[in-house]
């Protein structure tokens, strides 16, 4: 038996690591944290100082959403743990988690930018925005939106877009109109089949609580003459009814060009 003076009681280990005693006992039951010594007289558990690092590894597993059963797979019946292989597993989990966090931060930036823009204008007020070219995957609806099932068409299209599972929410979606034809679109990061490129330039815009793309010609009659491209997409505002999002309608002359 090791010198008890060099061992930590379960209470001391709990204080050093910030992990509750009940949790430490649970880790023992699932074979990821065996005590260095168990007193045969009292049943008290004792741990080495090095085992505080093992507790930190357990907490890392939890933070990375790794089941603790995964950690147990790297420890044999004698308590010998294959640290290198376990670290490979942890690194992979951390990289996946980091990617999700980076995506989340990017999405927050996009939403905050939308809210800043929305707050600069009142509902029903026409304003201008300089927008970059965008790549849209499109699904034609014909000359009317009345019979188009927007959300059914939108969700079914995700299966045909490679990035969708990882990047859902990072790109715009909505309705597009040009040459008397409507399409539902999803913005994509690169050109593929059934994509178009919208022109970069200065767009006339307006925010509405209801879809107004079918009334675009009337709304922008003093700003756009002749053929034009209309794009309508949902945007975030600082305070809004979550069941009734705000739409931004944008138009630009067709002479700016749609690239197939």
Structure write-up:
It is a single chain. Helix content is 34%, strand content 24%. It is of the alpha+beta class. The strands form two sheets. The chain has an eight-stranded antiparallel β-sheet. Strands 1-3-2 form a three-stranded antiparallel β-sheet.
| Number of DSSP-assigned strands | 11
- Distance, first to last CA: 77 Å
Number of helices: 8
Largest sheet, in brief, is: 8 strands, antiparallel
Contiguous uncertain segments of 5+ residues = none
Mean pLDDT: 84
Radius of gyration: 29 Å
Q: Tell me what portion of residues adopts beta-strand conformation.
A: 15-25%
Please give the order of strands in the largest beta sheet: 4-9-11-10-6-7-5-8
Overall outline: elongated
List keywords for this structure.
single chain; 260 residues; alpha+beta; 8-stranded antiparallel β-sheet; 3-stranded antiparallel β-sheet; 11 strands; 34% helix; 24% strand; elongated
Short overview:
With 260 residues, this protein is α+β, with helices and mostly antiparallel strands. Helices cover 34% and strands 24% of the residues.
Secondary-structure blueprint:
Layout: E1 8-9, H1 10-17, H2 21-29, E2 37-38, E3 45-47, H3 51-63, H4 68-72, H5 83-119, E4 127-131, E5 134-142, H6 150-157, H7 164-167, E6 173-178, E7 181-187, E8 195-198, E9 201-208, H8 216-219, E10 228-235, E11 246-253
Antiparallel strand pairs: 1-3, 2-3, 4-9, 5-7, 5-8, 6-7, 6-10, 9-11, 10-11
């Amino acid at each position: 038996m090791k010198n008890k003076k060099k061992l930590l009681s379960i209470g001391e280990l709990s204080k050093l690591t910030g992990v509750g005693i009940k949790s430490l006992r649970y880790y023992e039951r699932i074979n990821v944290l065996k005590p260095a010594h168990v007193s045969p007289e009292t049943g008290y558990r004792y741990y080495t100082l090095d085992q505080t690092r093992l507790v930190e590894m357990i907490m890392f597993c939890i933070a990375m959403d790794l089941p603790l059963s995964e950690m147990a797979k790297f420890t044999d019946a004698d308590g010998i743990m294959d640290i290198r292989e376990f670290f490979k597993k942890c690194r992979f989990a951390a990289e996946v988690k980091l990617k999700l966090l980076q995506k989340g931060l990017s999405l927050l930036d996009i939403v905050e930018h939308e809210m800043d823009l929305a707050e600069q204008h009142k509902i029903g007020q026409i304003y201008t925005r300089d927008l970059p070219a965008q790549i849209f995957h499109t699904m034609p609806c014909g000359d009317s939106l009345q019979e188009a099932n927007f959300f059914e068409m939108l969700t079914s299209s995700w299966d045909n877009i490679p990035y969708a599972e990882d990047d859902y929410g990072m790109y715009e979606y909505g309705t597009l109109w040009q040459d008397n034809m409507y399409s539902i679109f999803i913005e994509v990061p690169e050109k593929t089949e059934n994509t178009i490129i919208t022109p970069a330039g200065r767009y006339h815009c307006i925010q509405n609580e209801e879809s107004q793309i079918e009334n675009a010609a009337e709304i922008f009659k003093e700003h756009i003459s002749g053929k034009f491209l209309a794009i309508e997409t949902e945007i975030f505002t600082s305070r809004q009814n979550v069941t009734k999002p705000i739409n931004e309608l944008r138009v630009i002359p067709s002479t700016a060009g749609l690239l197939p």
